[in-house]
TrEMBL record:
Protein's recorded name: Small s protein
UniProt xrefs under InterPro entries: HeLo_dom, HeLo_sf
Organism whose genome encodes this protein: Fusarium austroafricanum
Domain Prion-inhibition and propagation HeLo, chain residue ranges per copy: 5-184
Length: 296
């Protein structure tokens, strides 16, 4: 068999990619996944979203696809690696099919997880400009251990693929920032935990971190009732962080009652507290006598 040429390899990427994306969408989870169902589904959706981000960056979803554009920024070796790894992802899904039972998917997930899944699915579907899958039969994994093998292998391969074509890193970073904005605020901790668990998708993890820092803390509809000895504070303590940017804070509809000391804002400390008790003593002193600079 004659080796595939550079031009042919590039031209074949859209078809192979789209066939591989379908593999994600035909996977379901059996009832015995229980409480793990939502997390497993979110992990699969997160990996698919990362994969479509790469596809978007190289122009796969453009109609028509422009192979010349990819040829300008990629080497023949990189393109052939991409094809090889996409093929391996499909192989992982085919191997997982050997450990299945035919069951209807359950759709009972906890609200934050459900919102996270819907947010990510909305992004991937918008990129693909697709509505419904074809008539291909969906299949359900019935053991968590089988899913772990599948998702770890697939997530690792997707991570490798997205690191190909260095010229596309900035474009992928921008797409990751858009994704982070689409995720519901209450779902951010879950997505962060998923990315940390899989140890993949550094671009999205960084985009979330930057987004959280820019948005900062939001305190909304807070009611505080204090006694005369009460100390209440909203904000962070920064110690020896000269030159660093602190997180923003926003307060909306804060109602304070009773008597005591309340502080809204960050505390900046220079020096080193020897113990947690010393740190606490300093913070109390700041509350009682004003917020200035103190040495410890």
């Amino acid at each position: 068999m004659e080796p595939i040429g550079f031009t042919s390899a590039i031209a074949s990427i859209p078809g192979v990619f789209k066939s591989c994306i379908d593999c994600f969408e035909y996977v379901q989870f059996a009832r015995n996944f229980g409480d793990d169902f939502g997390v497993c589904l979110a992990r699969l959706e997160a990996t698919q979203m990362q994969f479509t981000r790469w596809g978007k960056a190289i122009g796969i979803f453009e109609d028509p696809f422009n192979p010349a554009g990819l040829q300008e920024i990629a080497t023949e070796a990189e393109v052939k690696k991409a094809l090889k790894w996409i093929g391996l992802i499909q192989d992982k899904f085919e191997a997982a099919k050997k450990n299945i039972r035919w069951e209807e998917q359950i759709d009972k997930t906890k609200p934050p997880l459900r919102k996270l899944v819907f947010s990510m699915r909305k992004i991937t579907e918008a990129r693909q400009r697709k509505t419904k899958l074809g008539t291909k039969i969906k299949w359900a994994l019935y053991k968590n251990s089988h899913f772990e093998v599948l998702i770890e292998d697939v997530a690792r391969l997707v991570d490798k693929i997205t690191e190909l074509f260095p010229y596309l890193e900035t474009k992928q970073q921008d797409l990751a920032k858009e994704e982070a904005k689409e995720v519901e605020v209450e779902s951010i901790p879950i997505l962060t935990e998923i990315l940390a668990t899989q140890k993949t998708d550094k671009l999205l993890a960084m985009a979330i971190k930057e987004g959280v820092r820019a948005e900062g803390h939001v305190f909304r509809d807070v009611e505080i009732n204090m006694n005369k000895d009460g100390l209440f504070r909203m904000g962070n303590t920064y110690q020896n962080v000269g030159g660093s940017a602190s997180e923003a804070m926003r307060f909306e509809k804060i109602k304070v009652g009773g008597s005591g000391v309340q502080h809204a804002g960050h505390i900046f400390i220079q020096g080193t507290a020897k113990t947690h008790e010393a740190q606490r003593e300093l913070e109390e002193r700041l509350f009682m006598y004003g917020f200035g600079e103190y040495d410890i």
